[in-house]
Each structure stands twice: as C-alpha cells, then as structure tokens.
Amino acid sequence: MISLSFSSMSRGWPLSRLRFLLVSLLLPLALAGVAAEVHNPIGGVRFDPSVQLAGQVLQLNGTGLRARFWIKAYAAGLYLGQRVQDADAALTQPGAKRLQLRMLLPVPAAEFVKALHLGVARNNPPALQASLAERVAVFDAMLTPLGEVRKGDTVNLDFLPGRGLLFFHNGRLLGPAIAGDEFYNAVLRVFVGEHVSDEGLRAGLLGQS
After folding, report:
1. For residues 53 and 189, is the Cβ–Cβ distance under 8 A?
2. Alpha carbon of 6 to those of 15, 22, 28, 122, 134: distances in Å?
3. Can you tell me the distance from the alpha carbon of 138 to that of 161, in angstroms, rounded to the nearest whole number?
4. 92-95 own/partner pairs: CB under 8 Å, 24+ apart
5. Which of 64, 132, 187, 207 is least enclosed by beta carbons within 10 angstroms?
6. How high is the pLDDT of residue 14?
7. What is the tens place of the pLDDT at every residue in 103-158?
C-alpha cells in the first residue's frame, strides 16, 4: 500500500517533482485502460469501429493477424452486436455478425478452401460436419473461381438472421446465401474455436490481447 501525504511532501519537494510522481503513478492505470481497447490499426490496416448490417449497428469486437513466422497473410476484424471476450458468447450471440478479412499478401483460393476444410474438421464434431457437407461445397464453389485473393482485397463473411452466410469479395456478393446458424458458426469456429491454427488471431478477435 502506497500512502502519500502531499502536505508533508510539498514542503521539501519542488512542484515539478510532485507532478512527475503523479504521472508515474497514474500512467499504468491509463495504459491498462488503453490495453482493453481494440487494437486498431493492425498490420497497417484500420478497421471501422462500427458497421451497419441488416439494420443493426455492429461493434468491432477485436482484430488480429493471421501470421506464420514473419509472414502476415491477412488482418481480420470481428463485428458483433455486443462486444464479448468468450468464443461461446460470440457464437451464440443473436443477431447479425461480420468477419472481415483484409489481405496483406496474395493467397490462392485453393489454399483458402484447404484451410477452411481443415479448420471445420478440427473445430466441429463429425456429425455436424456430415450435415454441413453440401453447404461447405457451395462455399467452395463461390471461392474457387476467384483463383487468387489478392493483396488489398477485402472479404466479408456476413451473417444475416433468417438468411445465413453471405460472402462478399471487394463489396461484390458471390453466390447465394448459405442458410443456417450452424453453418456460419462452423465457419466462425475456424477462427475462434478451441483448435484454431493461430492462437494469436483467436485472442485478437475475441478482444483478449
């Protein structure tokens, strides 16, 4: 416990030293407040603090980088109606959602498809995977024709209640909506599930780091 008596200290301390001491004591508290905020920008990319989707205002829940060693593939931002720090809370939260990917280098579409399949397999039970197989194939068919997702591209994976997942590439809707909360959650678990490929990305999207 630190106890300060300003009346006794001021008699022997110049005002400038008292100010320095106050700043030294209060600065860690201020930095703790800043650390709780969403990291923005990240990887040189700035995410909007909020977006409107399906008539709902969504808040930037967190941001993260998909990186391996020194190679940064993309920056990602998760938008929810209410900010949370728990994966289950993000998955079960009702209303619209958006996962935005901002590409930092070109990536073949085939690699995205491969990563999606691996992530779905790691983070969803076999019975659910079997029930989603046809919808995963529809998702693949939307992504594969792109050939490559280029540096600077923006991918939005939006969830609209009653419609499902909508895939936007640079603002252009690709294909039909893929129905079902369970499908969107299966995709979102690739990024925030228990067995993700990048723990730092997961923590960032959940506002934990």
Report:
1. no
2. 11, 11, 21, 59, 71
3. 19
4. 94/161, 95/56, 95/161
5. 132
6. 54
7. 999 999 999 899 999 999 999 999 999 999 999 999 999 999 999 999 999 999 99
Burial 154-171 (b: 16+ CB within 10 A, else e): ebbbbbbeeebbbbebee
pLDDT value, residue 40: 67
Q: Which two tokens stand for residue 148?
A: 């490559």
| Tokens representing residue 135 in the block | 């919808």
The position carrying tokens 């709780």 is: 36
CB contact set of 129 (below 8 Å; sequence gap of 6+): 120, 121, 186
One-letter amino acid for residue 89 of the chain:
A
Token duo for residue 155:
């991918």
Domains identified in the chain and CATH numbers: 6-35 (no CATH), 50-205 (3.50.70.10)
Q: What is the pLDDT of residue 10?
A: 44
